Amino acid sequence: MTSLQLADHFDRQNIVARIISGGLLALGALAAVSAFGFDAPIWKAPFLMMITVGGVVLSIEWSTMTAQVPDWRVMCVSSVAVLAVILIAFAGRFAEAAGGVVVGALASSAMASAARARAMDTAYGVIYIAPACLALMWLIQTPQGPGWTLMLFAATWTADIAAFVFGNIIKGPKLWPRFSPNKTWAGFIAGLLGATLASLAVAAAFMRLSLLGAGVIGFAGGLATMAGDLWESMLKRRYGVKDSGDLIPGHGGLLDRVDGLMFAVMVFAVARLFVQLRWAH
Questions:
Q1: Which residues, listed in sequence order, are joined to residue 184 by a DSSP beta bridge?
Q2: Are 170 and 278 in contact (CB under 8 A)?
Q3: Residue 272 · residue 142 · CB < 8 Å
Q4: Per-residue pLDDT tens for 90-149?
Q5: Are 198 and 186 in contact (CB under 8 A)?
Q6: Which of 4, 25, 183, 238 has its CA 20 to 30 A from that of 231?
Q7: Can you list the positions of beta strands (E) in the chain?
Q8: Which phi and psi angles does 114 have, rounded to 5°?
Q9: Least confidently predicted of 132-136, 154-158, 165-169
Q10: First vs last Cα of the chain: how many Å apart?
Q11: How far apart are CA 180 and CA 159, in angstroms?
């Protein structure tokens, strides 16, 4: 989720770029999630491609953001580590994929040490990115997985939009000025409400899930989305960068776009596991 800009007026050109680029990304993601619901393996390819490309781009952005002079060897090993976790998870071998996170972090750290780069930062990049990709792969492959994934996307996107819009309109006290001076309590509350309502709407329309459960999950997902956004703000402040990249017009890098989603997917995966175990009994 990108930084919530608190300004006296909208930068119209930036807003238009945000809307167009964000809309195109959302349409692509929705198409990939919808296609995954079909039985034929070929329909699962768009989602796999979206996650693999996303995982590699995130790894490259992380390496670029955390290193004063990025080393291509470190970048390649980190990208391969994340890619391997995604492919193993896509094959349904989730325990092995979880082990792959550890192996990948160690391999990336070793390569960084050999290249005299930041070994701990490199290892954390794999730990930061790969589990979110693994959780997303697991979530969509569970029963009603596309519906759960749609609810996840709806919650995080709505939290993002509501926080940005109402944070700019209402303004007011700042949420955590030390690390993210542009975020406000008004935007935070609006984001939570937006995530809750979006989850309720998706559950009512597409899923066999109680509205109470959907509301609780959406609210928790909204909290995670805000936490992920604040966490990335702290990371960017630590490394002295404004954005993780410039890939997406109006948003910055891909990490700026999905930082909240990377936290929220863990919440949704835990909630899905709880519901699945409850149904089993």
A1: 174
A2: no
A3: yes
A4: 999 999 999 999 999 999 999 999 998 899 999 999 999 999 999 999 999 999 999 999
A5: no
A6: 25
A7: 174-176, 180-184
A8: -65, -35
A9: 165-169
A10: 37
A11: 17
Structure tokens at 17: 């770029």
Spatial distance between the Cα atoms of 199 and 207, rounded to a whole number of angstroms = 10
Contacts 24+ apart (CB under 8 A), 274-281: 275/209, 275/213, 276/142, 276/143
Distance of CA 78 to the CA centre of its chain: 18
Residue type, 213: G
Say if CB 61 and CB 192 are below 8 A apart.
no
Q: How many CB atoms sit inside 10 A of residue 37's CB? A: 16
CA 209 – CA 212 distance, rounded (Å):
8
CB 257: neighbour CB atoms within 10 A?
A: 23
Q: Is 3 strand, coil or helix?
A: coil
Neighbours of 134 (CB within 10 A): 26
Query: Rounded to whole angstroms, how far apart are CA atoms 236 and 214?
Result: 32
Radius of gyration, alpha carbons of the chain: 19
Contact 137, 129 (CB under 8 A): no
Whole-model pTM above 0.70? Answer: yes
- What's the farthest any 2 CA atoms get from each other in the chain? 55
Quick one: DSSP state of residue 181? Answer: E
